[in-house]
Amino acid sequence: MFPKEASLKNVIVIKSVIRCFEMVFGLKVNFNKSKFGSIGLDGDHMERYENLLKCTLMNLPFTYLGLPIGVNPRRVESWKPIIARLKKNLSSWKSKVFSMVGRVCLLNFVLMSLPLFFLSFFRVPKSVGKQIISIQRQFLWGSKDGARGR
């Protein structure tokens, strides 16, 4: 993403900064694997910058550092990947035998780091918050499919 405005001058400056980085540190940036994008630019400018940088164009929505960028965080649909990832992480641990203290530690320190990371950026809708708490309770008390039990 361009930090300011995506002008030809800024694109050239960014490319030269990357080249300086390569020379100073002896590393090589793989532009074929790199992506760039800007919000509010027309397709002609983006294609020109894409050819200049030899990068692929990134469209909204996309994920940056695990965060969905370009989605509306107030919509429940935006939170579905987070809920799915939480359930996936929990399903791999459900077959393990943990004490109550072990399950609490796992929930607090390992599994809840994913939703907390998102919650530090976005306000969660109430229904999503209730769903996350429900998933936590089901894991903690050992219930399957919402049924009570151990």
Automatic annotation (TrEMBL):
What residue intervals traverse the membrane? 100-122
| Record keywords, A-Z | Membrane, Transmembrane, Transmembrane helix
Q: What is this protein called?
A: Ribonuclease H protein At1g65750 family
